[in-house]
């Protein structure tokens, strides 16, 4: 967990430290109390078991002395102590019983305390002859009670529990039988346990313990009275008694604690005590408190660790949350900036858009204006053309009409005068003029042609053949021959074009007539027509060796009513009509000025193939 400390983390961390400091001690005390309670529970069990084991062990022997005291031979011996053989017999019997019961030693005493027979009669420390009148078990038994005493054997120097029973003879007490039980085996069972057991006498002197070094040490102060009382019964024979400098205290949970100095240092024990009044014993179970204290410390440490882990996790989460919020704030700010910018841009765009719209509106208005101006101009042009045409028409018609009137008036006068021939000539002239006006009218009709009339596939040679008779008088008058050179169409078939045959004929008549006009009166006049296929086009060129077209008027020769020919000769409509007809065919007509003089009209038409060939009709 990575934590970068911030100022706002200091307060919670400080609080957590304070909580740790404030709770560590009470928590330790509390946990120690709990551990001590557990320890005390175990001590209580142990103590109960130890006490019942002790009781059980000694209870086994309790009634045996009284039983043995009733033995006849023993009774006889205390009656007659000087009887050596009897003494031997009793010695042997006691030895046998002792061996049988597993006790330490059994012996019989006279009322003065002298031992007359003993199970250890053969041993160097034999009790026989010894006097143990100072022992309370003797005095108690002699008084008719039960003699009970625990002590270190003055002769054997072995600790034991003594049971004394009176030997009775006819209601009198004639001696005391003593039965000593060795307590070492009991003590042996305590060794190696993880707890300590001490048994103290009424003076607080340890009589039994699982620790050999504690035996004969007093856990109470060894006062004069205590020492005197102990010396009186010679309970511990000649053993030197010492004090164990025990410190008593009260642990958590009110448990009694005893601290004992030991070679490895002072050791603290939790002590549980039970009195065994029937034996004048106090049994203590001592449990080392160290493991419990360590357990308590570990538990507190674990709890505090948990607490700190929780605190650190909480801090980390807080920081993460804070970082997240900061990031959100930054994002929000970025978003707002972006939105603001987008808003600004949108406003800019809207402004630009608005201006564009305005411009578009302005443009449209301008365009409308332009169109209107254009249409006005067209209208004006049309009117001008119409005016021009009207002027030309009136000019063209007025002259023959004037001539017709003059001829008619003249014819009238000639008829009056009887000059019939002349009058007839005049009428013929009138007829010629009317004819000319009819031709003019027919030409004008061509302006009202139908440009979209369906086209056909036409054999060019045929059209030229049909044209020849029409232009023959004109060519003859000009003294010229028409030379033709017509190429092949596709697959060596006739040269075919898309056109209307009559209109194409009209175009050719116009062009050839113009050429004839140009060469008329010139020496060696020549007109040559060549037709050739070039890809999907067919080019028809009509060249003459006339004066050619002056560059200044070349751009105007296709305009209607443009003519350089004199009045009554040219109408100025031939090329203009031809131009429009050729355009209707999808072709073109233009003038080229070839080297070597003369003029050449180039007629370009869309080529057709034999497949498209129907029977021509227009
Ligand atoms: P028109 O023949 O009645 O004058 P066109 O429109 O046919 O009218 O011809 C216009 C003019 O073009 C002619 O007046 C003439 O000046 C000129 N032009 C046409 N063809 C030729 C040509 N082959 N050589 C010289 N000038 C020509």
Structural class: alpha+beta
Quote the CATH topology of the largest domain: Heat Shock Protein 90
Main sheet characteristics: 6 strands, antiparallel
Number of strands: 20
List the ions, cofactors and other small molecules found in this model.
adenosine-5'-diphosphate
**Poorly predicted spans:** none
Per the principal axes of the C-alpha atoms, what is the gross shape?
rod-shaped
Number of helices: 12
Euclidean distance between termini CA atoms? 103 Å
Domain Histidine kinase: 392-609
Catalytic activity: ATP + protein L-histidine = ADP + protein N-phospho-L-histidine
Coiled coil: 321-376
Keywords: ATP-binding, Cell inner membrane, Cell membrane, Coiled coil, Kinase, Membrane, Nucleotide-binding, Phosphoprotein, Transferase, Transmembrane, Transmembrane helix, Two-component regulatory system
Describe the 3D structure:
This protein is of the alpha+beta class and 618 residues long. It folds into 4 domains: 64-182, 2-Layer Sandwich (Beta-Lactamase), CATH 3.30.450.20; 185-292, 2-Layer Sandwich (Beta-Lactamase), CATH 3.30.450.20; 389-448; 450-612, Histidine kinase-like ATPase, C-terminal domain (Heat Shock Protein 90, 2-Layer Sandwich). It is built from 12 helices and 20 strands. The chain has helices at 7-59, 64-69, 72-79, 84-101, 136-142, 184-190, 224-233, 290-416, 420-445, 460-478, 501-519, 574-584; strands at 105-109, 115-118, 147-152, 159-169, 172-182, 195-200, 206-209, 217-218, 242-243, 247-250, 256-262, 265-276, 281-288, 456-459, 482-486, 496-499, 527-534, 537-544, 588-592, 599-606. The protein has a 6-stranded antiparallel β-sheet with strand order 7-6-13-12-11-10. It has a 5-stranded antiparallel β-sheet with strand order 2-1-5-4-3. A 5-stranded mixed β-sheet has the order 15-17-18-20-19. β10 and β11 (256-262) form a beta hairpin. The two termini are 103 Å apart. The mean pLDDT is 87. Adenosine-5'-diphosphate binds at residues 510, 514-515, 518, 544, 546, 548-549, 557, 562-565, 570-576, 599.
